[in-house]
Every structure is written in C-alpha cells, then in structure tokens.
Amino acid sequence: MKILAISDLHGNLPKLPACDLLLIAGDICPGPYHPEIVAAVKHADWLHNDFRRWLNNCECKQAVGIGGNHDVLFEGKMLIKSLQLPWVYLQDEGYEFEGLNVWGCPWSVPPVVNGGKWTFEWTFACDNEDDARIKFNSIPHDTDILITHCPPYSVCDLTRNGKRHVGSMSLLSTVERLNLKLHVFGHIHEGFGQMKIKNTTFANVSYLTEEYKPRNRGWLEIEL
Questions:
Q1: In this predicted model, what pLDDT tens digit does every residue of 10-30 receive, in sequence order?
Q2: Containing H/E element for 63?
Q3: How far apart are CA 220 and CA 99, in angstroms?
Q4: Are strands 145-148 and 182-185 parallel, antiparallel or unpaired?
Q5: DSSP conformation class of 166
C-alpha cells in the first residue's frame, strides 16, 4: 500500500503524486487571521471551495486528516463534518482502511517561551502534559497508523538551531506502549523527515519550512 503524508499546508495546495491513502496531519487552512471570527469565516469559504476542489483532484483512494493548532474552525467537529468534504475527518476517533486501523488526534502542548506560556491562542491546545496525557491515552491499542499534529518528544522535533526538542513527552510515552506501523505528524516545520524506531516509522511531514516557504516535494511517500 502506498501512503502519502503531508502536514502544515497553511493554505498551500500542491499537486501530489498518486497514492492509495493520503494522510493530512493538520494546519491545513491559510492564515493565521485575527480576530478568530475572521479566521472562521475565511476558513469556511476556503474549505468549501479551494480545499474541496484540491481533495477531489487528488489521485488517492481515500484521504484522511485532522486539524492543527491554526485550524480554528476544526474544533467544531460537527461543523467540519457538515461541509461533507471528500475525506474522512478524525478528531479523537478512528477509521479502518483496507484492514489498517487509523486514529487521528489533533492535540498539542503550547511551548514555554522565555519562562512563560506561549501567548498565541491555539486550537486543540492542552494546558500541560498532564492534560495532553488524558487525550493521548484514548488512542486504542490496536492502532496501526496514528495521525497527530504534534511530534512525540525527541522524534523529528528539533527546532531550527538543532539543540532543543519541543515534542510532547506524554505523546512519547503513549506511542512507546503502542505497536504502531506508522506515526505521521507535523507542527515543527524544521523537523521534516522520517526515522524508524523498532517497528514504527515516524514521519514529520511539514510541507512548509519554518520561514513558511513550500519545500520541493515537501511530503513523504511510505510503503506499508
């Protein structure tokens, strides 16, 4: 099975190669826009038109995705589902594709900056790692493919200077107890790449660089 994974599009909609399963790991919408109500209106129009058209043009059997911390409209799960986009939207829930159990979890933990909390208002933001642990502990033991927005700690999560890990410790402890085939995420743009730990392939599939510029072939293709 050919899987193509991408994240952190921020309104960019690249032409993608054909695949069986397309995974989208959040931060899909353009922006950020402020205030939040402006973002919600702009995102609704963009999702209904541009994103729908892009999904329809993707050569895949099935697209599955989650929201990210900049996708302000996505916390209204029923609203997103009411758009009837040609994909499967997951928010702390699963989907079976050709015998593989896929789980989507959009939550992340805002980083501590200069000794204080990140001031930007995030969507799907956990207050701390204890709060995040409750979310991540709901991931079922029989999950084969996990889509999260944030990375686990120490896995493709280094910031630009390559010295600071900013992934989630609670997510790391969760994935360590699971027997995943694949874990895809984004959020930390400069962490793009993949690594294999035991039997699990981990992939940071951020399409944009930290400067918010598209990468050349800024997605990963994985065979399962």
A1: 999 999 999 999 999 999 999
A2: strand 60-66
A3: 22
A4: parallel
A5: -
Structural domain harbouring 173? 2-223
- Burial class, 172, CB count within 10 angstroms (exposed 0-12 / middle 13-18 / buried 19+): middle
For residue 87, the domain's CATH number is 3.60.21.10
CB atoms within 10 A of CB 135: 21
In the structure encoding, which two tokens stand for residue 92, read together? 């702390």
Virtual CA dihedral for 209, 214, 216, 220, nearest 10 degrees?
A: 70
Residue 113: the pLDDT is 57
Q: What is the pLDDT of residues 30-55, one digit of tens each?
A: 977 666 677 788 899 999 999 999 99
Beta-carbon count within 10 A of 163 CB:
7
Residue with tokens 């758009």: 83
Residues in the chain: 224
223, 3 contact by CB (below 8 A): yes
Alpha-carbon Rg of the chain, whole angstroms?
16
- Alpha-carbon distance of 3 to 64, in angstroms, equals 11
Q: Which long-range contacts (CB under 8 A, 24 or more apart) does 46-55 make?
A: 46/11, 47/73, 47/80, 47/83, 47/85, 48/83, 50/13, 51/13, 51/85, 52/83, 52/85, 52/86, 54/13, 55/85, 55/86, 55/87
Amino acid symbol at 59: E
How many structural domains is the chain composed of?
1
